[in-house]
Amino acid sequence: MKVLFFVDTHGSISSMRRLKEKAKDAELVVCAGDFTIFENDMTFMLREFNNFGKPLLLIHGNHETSSSVMIECEQLKNLHFIHKNYYIHGDLVFYGFGGGGFSLRDESFARESELFMIEQRKLSENTGQNHRLVLVTHAPPYGTRLDDLGGHVGNKSITEFIHKHKPVLAISGHLHENEGSEDKMGDTIIINPGPEGVLIDL
Fold this sequence. Notes:
By secondary structure, this protein is of the alpha/beta class. The chain contains five helices and eleven strands.
């Protein structure tokens, strides 16, 4: 299954149009936040994303608030707001956590993500099906190429989650200097897809 990931478009119409073209080859689209500049033209951008005609999962970045994005997404059939929530597609489960990007630790992420993993274990026990995990955060994990600005500035709570739960893929953004960066943490592939987006076959 091909999934199109992107982040940090910041209201760019040209980026949105290129992503719409790339989305034709994807079964699913995922946005890791900061698709506006402080929510300017947010309704327009979300309607355009809805017009991609594919399920589009998204979280807010530090330029959007969770409440406003959630309300807008509820009105649009193709958009799924996954902040502190998840979306199952085939054998994949996408868990999202938006906002942030400015702290070395995030206790809210640590708490909410562990509750999610408990729920997933119960679901697996009840259904007998194990899902491959894709982590979608706006903030990058600490200690990789994605958070290196001459020193690491990412989030240690996210890094600890990746080490413990070993998602197949972790997507993040926030640091524009590292757009397009890729790294690995154990068996987890870590990518900042940037505003131009990356098609990944999962």
